[in-house]
Amino acid sequence: MLSAVNVQARGCEIPTEIRAHFEEKLHSLEKVWSKLDDAQVRVKHERGHYVAEVTLFAAGVVTRAEERAHDLRAAFDAALHKLQAQIKRYKNKLQHKARRQNNRDDVNGVVLHPKLPKEEIATATVSALVVTPQAEPEKPLDKVLAETSDAMTSLEDEAPATLVRTKKFALKPMSPDEAALQMDLLGHDFFVFRNCKNNGVEVVYRRSSGGYGLIEPVPD
User: Would you say the pTM of this structure is higher than 0.70?
Assistant: First the structure.
């Protein structure tokens, strides 16, 4: 049950009726996501647009969406609509995962998905997480060297990078599959998490060619 709605504004005022609209719409989400605990709304006005960022917290899962519009209510409603779509995809994935687990054995007790030898488990896990597209033709060596040279020249011409923001957050133990779902809910291209099996800090990321990748640090 949604216990609190935290609304923050920067560079603008939030009228009472708009704040009430925020709370009404967020409470209505409980019909589709009963585990909803808290919600946070951050709005700001910049360059003639309102930017609304809505974050939901539910049973340890964080969902976030951001939208902008000339009207404050429209920006919030668009972000909320995106959140509803994300929640629906998340619930569908959970249901699909549950069905896969329930269908491991048929009615006669025959194992439909036999267990793999230990030495194949790691490979099978990565294959289940990463969707590998058809291999692309290799580029000629001279083209690769030319692209590398151009990239290095571009980096040399750029101004030194400056740290502009720092984020701190707790690393919740979860599986790579759960981390990939969490990344989707946040709309990020990568997600840092603590693997619940080995307690190591790992990263899942979205591959440009499709699917997800997993980065596992190893000792030197």
Answer: no
Distance CA 156, CA 150 (A): 10
Burial 113-134 (b: 16+ CB within 10 A, else e): eeeeeeeeeeeebeeebbeeee
Calpha distance 80→66 (Å, rounded): 9
What is the DSSP pairing of strand 212-215 with strand 201-206?
antiparallel
The SS3 assignment for 75 reads: helix
> Sorting pLDDT into bands at 50, 70 and 90, what band is 110?
very low
Residue 125 — pLDDT band, cuts 50, 70, 90? very low
Report the C-alpha gap between 117 and 167 in whole angstroms: 41
Q: Which residue type is seen at 218?
A: V
